[in-house]
Amino acid sequence: MLTPDQARDRAADVVARATRAGADAADAVFAADASTEVSVRLGKLEDVGRSESGDLGLRVFVGRRSASVSSSDLSDQAVDALVERAVAMAREAPEDKWAGLAPAERLMHGAPPQLDLDDGGAIAPADLRAMAEEAEDAARAVAGVTNSEGGGASASRSVWALATSTGFAGGYATTGYSLSASVLAGEGGAMERDYAFHSARHRRMLEKPADIGRRAGERAVARLNPGRVASGSMPVVFDPRVGSSLIGHLIGAIGGQAITRKTSFLLDALGTRIFPEGITIRDDPHRPHGLRSRPFDGEGLPVSPVAIVEDGVLETWLLDSASARQLGLEPTGHAARGIGGGPGVSPSNLYLEPGAVPVDTLIEEVRDGLYLTEVIGQGVNLVTGDYSRGAAGFLIRDGAIAGPVSEFTIAGNLRDMFANMTPANDLEFRYGTNVPTLRIDGMMVASG
Fold first, then answer.
1. At how many degrees (to 10) do helices 125-140 and 209-222 cross?
2. What is the pTM of this model?
3. Tens-level pLDDT at each residue, the chain (448 residues)
C-alpha cells in the first residue's frame, strides 16, 4: 500500500493534469484500503476474507459548472481518460452559483496534528481467528446461551489523501481493529439474540475477546421471556448503545444541506436553547487514536474541537463551503468526502458530556418506566422532528430494573425529547458517537 505522502502526491498529480486539460479548478481524493476478516461459528472456521482496494475521485470546475468522476483503474492511460471525461462533463453541466472549492485563505498549511491513528502493526489471520474463537467461546459458556451466530475479528489499514488546485495537499493513514460476538439464548420460538463488539485504532486498545463474548452472552440471556409494557406516557432511559442515535438525529438536522434546503425541524434554532441547561455536545477531531479523528476536513480546511451545543444552546451549523456560501457564513471544517461526488458534512468524534447524576440515581427516580437496549426501524422525520421507533429493553419498577419487555413503540418529537433529557455520569469513549446513559421524561409508549 502507498504511504500517505505517496497518496498525497498521486492526488496532486491528478489535479495538475486536470488544470492542464482545461479545468479552472479541481480537487482529487485518493483512498486505499487493505483489510482481513475472519469469522467463526460454533467453534469452526466459517470464513476468511482479504480485500485490497485503491480508488481515485476527481472533481473539476469550469466556471461555475462542475462534474465528478471516479475510477479504480489507476494506470496513466486510465487517469488521463478520466481527466478528459471530467472536463468534458463539466462543460455541459448546469451552472451552480454556490459551487467551488474551499476558500484558499482558509486551507490548512504547515504540519498536520499528530493523532496517533496508525499503530504500524500487522496481524496474521491465525491470530484473528484465535480472537474470534475466544470471544465466541466466552459467549457460549454463559448459562442459557443455546446457539451462536458467530464471532468475528478484523484488521485493516487505510490511506486517505486530498489535493486541490488552490494549494492544499495532505494525506494520512489509519489502522483499525474490531471484534464481535453474537449469540442466541432460549429455545424454539422463545429464542432471543444479542451481541457485543468493540473497535479500536490500535490493537493494544482492543477489549479482551473473553470480555466481549461474555457481555454478548449475558445480554442475550437477560432478554429471555420478555413481557409486554402498558401503553402511556412515561420516562424512558436509553442505554448508551442506543442513546447515541439521538445525537445522530441532531447532526442530521443541523447539516448545511438540511438548512439551505429548509428541511430541518431546527431551522430557526441556532443560538437558542434546545437542551436543558448543563448539556454540552462536543466534536473533537483531534482526539488521539479516535475512531473518527482526522487532521483536516474533506476540503482541506483545518479542524479543531468545537462545542456544537453549549449549556443547552445550539451554537453552530455544520457547513461545507457550498452551504456556507449559500447562507453567507463561513465553512466550519466539517466537510466529509467520499470518492464520488462533492463534499457533504459529518462530525468526527462526537460526544455528549456526562452529567452529575449516577446511573443508579437516574433509574431510582423512575417509578414506572423503561430502560431501552434496542431501537428498531427508521421512523424519524427530520423535517418535523417526529420520532417513532420500535424498541426492546427492560421495565423499570419503583426505581429498579425489572423484567425484559419487547414489541412496543416509543414516540415523541425530537424538540420535546431534547428539552426533557437528563444525562448520567457514565460517559465512555467506545464508538464514533458517545453518550452517557440518557433519560427522557414524558415519552409516549404503545404496546405492540
1. 30
2. 0.94
3. 889 999 999 999 999 999 999 999 999 999 999 999 999 999 999 999 999 999 999 999 999 999 999 999 999 999 999 999 999 999 999 999 999 999 999 999 888 899 999 999 889 999 999 999 999 999 999 999 999 999 999 999 999 999 999 999 999 999 999 999 999 999 988 999 999 999 999 999 999 999 999 999 999 999 999 999 999 999 999 999 999 999 999 999 999 999 999 999 999 999 999 999 999 999 999 999 999 999 999 999 999 999 999 999 999 999 999 999 999 999 999 999 999 888 999 999 999 999 999 999 999 999 999 999 999 988 999 999 999 999 999 999 999 999 999 999 999 999 999 999 999 999 999 999 999 999 999 999 998 7
- The three cell numbers locating residue 358: 449516577
Question: Considering Cα of 372, then 410, then 256, then 280, what sign does the dihedral take?
Answer: negative
Q: How far apart are CA 249 and CA 244, in angstroms?
A: 9
- Tell me which long-range contacts 12-17 makes (C-beta under 8 A, separation of at least 24): 12/163, 12/169, 14/56, 14/58, 14/79, 14/82, 14/83, 14/163, 15/58, 15/163, 15/164, 15/165, 17/79, 17/80, 17/83
Tell me, rounded to whole angstroms, the distance of Cα 187 from its chain centroid: 35
- Ranges of CATH 3.30.2290.10 domains, the chain: 4-221
Contact 287, 99 (CB under 8 A): no
Regarding the domain with residue range 4-221, which homologous superfamily does it belong to in the CATH classification? PmbA/TldD superfamily (3.30.2290.10)
Residue that is written with C-alpha cell 423503561 in the block: 370
